[in-house]
Design a protein that fits this description.
Blueprint (H helix, E strand, L loop, with lengths): L21 H4 L6 H16 L2 H23 L6 H19 L6 H18 L7 H19 L1 H6 L4 H26 L3 E3 L3 E5 H21 L6 H29 L14 H5 L2 H15 L3
C-alpha cells in the first residue's frame, strides 16, 4: 500500500552535490508490487462482500500490531502483552465492523483495564510496568482504531469507491514523494527523524496526490468537486507524510530500520501501512463531516 519515503542521502553520507547521480539511486522495483496489488484490491473491495474486505484489514492490522509491539517488547517476556494487544486489536476491529454485535466502547474500556492489569501477568521487571501498560494501550489505538476507519468508510454509501480513493491517493502521494525526492531532492525536510525525506519530495507527493484525486473523480467518484480534489490531495499527502514520520520516529527510538521483514526489500506490514493509518481517519471525517455521507 505504501511505496516508501523519498531518498536523497542519509546521516553520515556525503553532501548532496557529491552523491551519485539520482538515476543510479532510483529503484523502479518499488512500483511493481503496487501494480499487481491495485487491481486485486479493487476487485476485492468492489465485487466481494464486506466480510472479505474486513478479513484483509484484520490480517494486515494484526501483522502490523505485532510488529509495533516487538519494537518495545523484544524478548520472550513480551509474549503476554503482544498476545493481549493483538487480541484487543482484533476485538476493536470486529466492533467497528459489526457495532451491533460488539460495543466499541466496551472494547476500549477492556483495553485500558487490561493494560493497567498487565504488570500482574507479565514477567518483565516492574520498573517498566507503567511504560509497558502505556505501550499496550497505545498499540491498539495506533493501529487498530486508525485503520478501522477503512471499515467505517466501506460501510458508507458508495463506500467501495471511497475506500479505493483513500488507498489510491495515499499510494500516489507516497510514490510521488519517493521518485521526485530521489530525482530532485536537495533540502532535507526532517533531518533528525527521517534524513531521507526532502521538501522537493513533499511537493512531488502533494502534486501526485492531487492529480490522482482528479483522476478518481473522472473515473469513479464524480461527486467530488474541484475544491474537494485539491483539498483531499493536500490532505492525503500531508497527513500521509505525518503518519510516515511518526512511524520513523518510533523505529528510530527503538533503534531499528524496519518494523519487520515480512516484505523483503520493503520492510514489514507496519512500514506499508504507516501513511494509511493517518489518511484513513482523515478522509473518513472529511467525507462524513464535510460532505454529509
Amino acid at each position: 500500500m505504501k511505496q516508501g519515503a523519498v531518498e536523497c542521502g542519509g546521516e553520515g553520507q556525503q553532501p548532496v552535490e557529491t552523491l551519485p547521480s539520482a538515476s543510479k539511486r532510483l529503484d523502479i522495483r518499488r512500483i511493481y508490487p503496487a501494480l499487481i496489488f491495485a487491481p486485486l484490491f479493487y476487485v476485492l473491495v468492489r465485487y466481494l462482500p464486506p466480510s472479505a474486505f474486513f478479513s484483509l484489514v484484520l490480517t494486515a492490522s494484526l501483522l502490523a500490531t505485532g510488529e509495533f509491539y516487538r519494537l518495545h517488547f523484544r524478548t520472550e517476556q513480551g509474549a503476554v502483552p503482544i498476545v493481549a494487544g493483538v487480541g484487543a486489536t482484533a476485538l476493536l476491529l470486529t466492533s467497528m465492523q459489526w457495532p451491533d454485535l460488539l460495543s466499541e466502547q466496551t472494547v476500549l474500556l477492556l483495553t485500558v483495564v487490561g493494560s493497567l492489569l498487565l504488570p500482574l501477568f507479565s514477567q518483565r521487571d516492574l520498573s517498566r510496568a507503567l511504560m509497558d501498560s502505556a505501550v499496550l494501550a497505545f498499540g491498539v489505538l495506533y493501529v487498530g482504531f486508525t485503520i478501522g476507519h477503512l471499515l467505517r468508510t466501506r460501510a458508507l454509501d458508495g463506500g467501495e469507491f471511497l475506500v479505493f480513493f483513500v488507498v489510491l491517493t495515499t499510494w500516489a502521494g507516497d510514490t510521488g514523494a519517493y521518485y521526485v525526492g530521489t530525482l530532485f531532492g536537495r533540502r532535507k525536510l526532517t533531518p533528525t527523524i527521517s534524513p531521507n525525506k526532502t521538501v522537493e519530495g513533499l511537493i512531488g507527493g502533494v502534486a501526485c496526490s492531487v492529480l490522482t484525486a482528479f483522476g478518481a473523480r473522472a473515473w469513479f467518484l464524480p461527486s467530488l468537486t474541484t475544491v474537494d480534489c485539491v483539498a483531499l490531495g493536500l490532505l492525503m499527502a500531508g497527513v500521509g507524510l505525518a503518519g510516515d514520520l511518526v512511524e520513523s520516529a518510533l523505529k528510530r527510538s527503538a533503534g531499528v530500520k524496519d518494523s519487520g521483514g515480512l516484505l523483503p526489500g520493503h520492510g514489514g506490514m507496519l512500514d506499508r501501512l504507516d501513511s494509511l493509518l493517518f489518511t484513513a481517519p482523515a478522509f473518513y471525517y472529511y467525507v462524513t463531516l464535510g460532505k454529509g455521507y
